[in-house]
């Protein structure tokens, strides 16, 4: 009989914040490279948001390892077969990209803007990695539920994109940037990402079949159906379509998307430990 890993809430936060960081950076890089001057606020918020979140993920990983020197040892020697080593390197490299992009986001020099755009596109690859590798890692384990979840990496990736966009739109709303053109573009992109997440989630459950029982019918079912599907995806989509003229509803929708992203990682991680 396999022993389930005893992961606490700290690891859920690590997965959740890593997804937001990756999604926010990707959104910033796309807005920076393919958007217009009015989208610069989206790029700056995304870059600046990804930096502290990545740093927090590093701290959570260090705390989980118990001994800070273990984290430094993993950075000193890359081990392709060690998931923690891969995670440490992923956070370290992506952290450098978020730092450079954040500093360059304050410059309006044409040369530095071009440099920032190129760095952003390359850094997005590592952002994708941070957002999805945790799901891939779980899917590669021998745990009955996780081992059957072949699309978990894709689900975590699209959830990271959705929560990253939601976090950016919420910050823009709170800082008075909701009237800008960039805010509308982010909300529209987040709408499509939520729809895509629902599709991936449906395929994810279909491929799992009876193995999905811990999520859909077990003690975590109310959180899964109510917190993730209902509160985190369906209701935000409804608010997005019917509440465009009400200024506060987009912010409410963004908060609900973030809650749904947290619930997704919570139920996935905790369901095998119940």
How would you describe this structure to a colleague?
- The structure is a single chain.
- With 274 residues, this protein is mostly helical.
- It has a single domain, classed as Formate dehydrogenase/DMSO reductase fold, CATH 1.20.1630.
- The chain has 11 helices and no strands.
- Helix 1 (9-34) packs antiparallel against helix 2 and helix 1 packs across helix 11.
- It is globular, with a radius of gyration of 19 Å.
- The mean pLDDT is 84.
Rounded to an integer, what's the Rg over CA atoms?
A: 19 Å
Top CATH class: Mainly Alpha
CATH architecture: Up-down Bundle
Strand content: under 5%
CATH topology: Formate dehydrogenase/DMSO reductase fold
**Counted beta strands:** 0
**Weakly predicted, low-confidence segments:** none
- Report the oligomer: single chain
Report the major sheet.
Answer: none
**Ends distance:** 15 Å
Helices and strands, in order, run as HHHHHHHHHHH
- Level of helix content? over 70%
Chain-averaged pLDDT: 84
Number of domains: 1
Mass-distribution shape = globular
What is the CATH homology-level superfamily? Formate dehydrogenase/DMSO reductase domain
